[in-house]
Amino acid sequence: MELSGQYRIPAERERVFAALCDPVVLQRCIPVLEEIDRLSPTDYAARVRATVGPLKARFSGRLRLAPEDAPRFYILYAEGSGGLAGAVKGEARITLEEVGGHTHLTYTLAAALGGAVGRLAVKLVQAKADRVIGGFFERFTAEVLES
């Protein structure tokens, strides 16, 4: 499954990048995130609850931030397991460009889904992912503007 998109966030790039690396901000902004703990400056443990169609599951996993050219570009790697629900492995490539005091964020996401979640119709999973991403950016933008 592949997704891509772009958002304009009315804040400076360094501020946006710092917020994207802050587990407290992420906890408040990611609708499906139950728990996130920073293990190191680039590694996190997380637990997510997901409902896709008839499937309800909790996934536990790890996130790793690879700051290739931070705060301009970085890669986020994710792996998670939801027991009988299956497994998820993905990579997000994020570019942050500062344009006139605002940040233009572009992302591409590639994910491999296994087990029950992988057997669900791709369009159903993509529709859910689009809603979660949209909810995240709405909350994230408000969070960045308040800080």
UniProtKB/TrEMBL annotation:
CDD domains according to UniProt: CoxG
UniProt xrefs under Pfam families: COXG (PF06240)
Gene3D superfamilies assigned to the protein according to its UniProt record, in alphabetical order: 3.30.530.20
Name this polypeptide is given: Carbon monoxide dehydrogenase subunit G
Organism: Azospirillum rugosum
